[in-house]
């Protein structure tokens, strides 16, 4: 890390479920920016890769990422190491993770993979002389960080985004209590955490916004003269993204005689369902599914778009947006934006100032806002200029990563904690006592020799 940030370089481990992941490229860009600042980042994916991310920096990180198979001698060896050297801590980690996740079936089952993988990573982090662990998402990666702390005493922190707060908060109170600090991406999220966890959250949770690279996403000449206006939506095809309401809004626009093309960038489990909805609405000629696109391709599409739309909703599961990075990219490109008034989106989109906000699940309001921007070029340009200014001031990748780097440096500067063995049944404690006595006997024998 540059001396202006920390005074000396720090070695930090990054834990995440998948790396790289097509829908989580913001983590990749965060790591690359940290390394530009001088932080030595070691990447530890719990479950491997997810999709193909084509980025010059991605290949470098992939080449040295710590991908480890569940079935391997290294995995077995790590479990045996902890059982022999620190049986109480190892068993306590299992007890903590399984008992803490017993009310969440999905988390409970995944814990059987997370715990042994965390034990393996703990050994590797010791060998690499890692000074601090940072996890992305407060779910499985942060559970792994907590297990690593229990085994090694390494300090850890984590970033929480959206579903890890809105859908399932299992063990989040314990994770927050054990962490040096926690990061979240919006004031909306921080206020929610403070309301849930009180003083602990108020003291530990900081806001570090996701940022975009304003050199990649920048204003470019937009189509002028007679052309069919383009409405662009960049979002994975999932229920909380609200594509069904956009399809209905497009039907209403067509019915009103508006000429347009709507391009959907992204993929996901709802693609077939949404294609059927497009056919039923009779807008096959207007709506085009483009699938996943690389970052430079998205930047080019944003430059040609007349309006960018994000029709997000709160799903039945409680899942909703944090602040969509795709909206930040649109504003950085000076594209006029229409979005829904949910979660932290109003922290980015100021209604009538940096974009237009409409109620969620309201296709008529969505169609009306799109029609306003398609019909008023001066308004669209004003919102676009204001939007880029807001991104540069508050959602700048480099500025936000500097703040994160400072917090990571502070976390790495903390002295190692005493490894914990809390919460294990009393009958198992005798095993650690007997093992410890045997260890002490071996030490005395060596000294006498």
TrEMBL record:
The EC number(s) this enzyme carries: 2.-.-.-
Region named Disordered: 416-449
Top-level enzyme category: transferase
Entry GO MF terms: glycosyltransferase activity
Domain Glycosyltransferase subfamily 4-like N-terminal: 112-215
Coiled coil regions, renumbered to chain: none
InterPro entries: Glyco_trans_1, Glyco_trans_4-like_N, Glycosyltransferase_grp1
Transferase as UniProt keyword: yes
Domain Glycosyl transferase family: start-end pairs: 229-390
PANTHER family named in the record: SLL1723 PROTEIN, SULFOQUINOVOSYL TRANSFERASE SQD2
The protein's name: Putative colanic acid biosynthesis glycosyl transferase WcaL
């Amino acid at each position: 890390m540059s001396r202006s940030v920390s005074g000396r370089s720090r070695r930090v481990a990054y834990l995440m479920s998948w790396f790289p992941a097509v829908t989580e490229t913001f983590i990749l860009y965060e790591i690359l920016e940290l390394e530009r600042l001088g932080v030595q980042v070691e990447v530890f994916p719990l479950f491997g890769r997810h999709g193909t991310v084509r980025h010059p920096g991605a290949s470098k990180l992939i080449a040295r990422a710590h991908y480890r198979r569940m079935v391997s001698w290294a995995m077995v060896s790590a479990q045996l190491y902890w059982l022999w050297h620190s049986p109480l801590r190892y068993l306590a980690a299992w007890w903590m993770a399984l008992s803490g996740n017993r009310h969440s079936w999905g988390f409970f089952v995944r814990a059987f993979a997370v715990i042994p993988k965390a034990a393996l990573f703990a050994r590797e982090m010791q060998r690499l002389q890692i000074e601090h662990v940072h996890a992305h998402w407060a779910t499985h990666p942060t559970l792994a960080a907590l297990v690593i702390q229990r085994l090694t005493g390494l300090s850890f922190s984590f970033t929480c985004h959206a579903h890890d707060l809105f859908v399932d908060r299992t063990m989040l109170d314990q994770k927050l209590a054990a962490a040096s600090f926690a990061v979240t991406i919006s004031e909306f999220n921080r206020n929610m955490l403070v309301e849930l966890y009180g003083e602990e959250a108020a003291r530990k949770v900081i806001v570090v916004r996701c940022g975009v690279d304003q050199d990649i996403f920048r204003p470019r000449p937009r189509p002028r003269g007679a052309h069919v206006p383009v409405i662009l939506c960049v979002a994975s095809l999932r229920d909380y993204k609200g594509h069904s309401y956009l399809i209905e809004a497009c039907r209403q626009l067509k019915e009103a005689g508006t000429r347009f093309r709507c391009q959907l960038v992204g993929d996901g489990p709802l693609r077939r369902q949404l294609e059927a909805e497009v056919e039923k609405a009779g807008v096959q000629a207007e709506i085009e599914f483009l699938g996943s696109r690389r970052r430079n391709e998205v930047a080019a599409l944003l430059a040609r778009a007349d309006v960018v739309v994000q029709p997000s909703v709160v799903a039945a599961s409680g899942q909703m947006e944090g602040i969509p990075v795709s909206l930040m990219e649109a504003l950085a490109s000076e594209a006029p934006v229409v979005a829904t008034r949910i979660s932290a989106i109003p922290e980015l989109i100021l209604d009538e100032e940096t974009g237009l906000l409409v109620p969620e699940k309201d296709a008529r309001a969505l169609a009306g806002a799109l029609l306003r921007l398609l019909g008023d070029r001066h308004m669209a340009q004003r919102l676009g200029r204001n939007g880029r200014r807001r991104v540069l001031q508050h959602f700048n990748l480099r500025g936000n990563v500097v703040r994160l780097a400072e917090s990571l440096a502070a976390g790495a500067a903390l002295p190692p904690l005493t490894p914990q063995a809390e919460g294990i049944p009393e009958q198992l404690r005798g095993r650690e006592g007997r093992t410890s006595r045997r260890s002490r006997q071996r030490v005395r024998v060596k000294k006498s020799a």
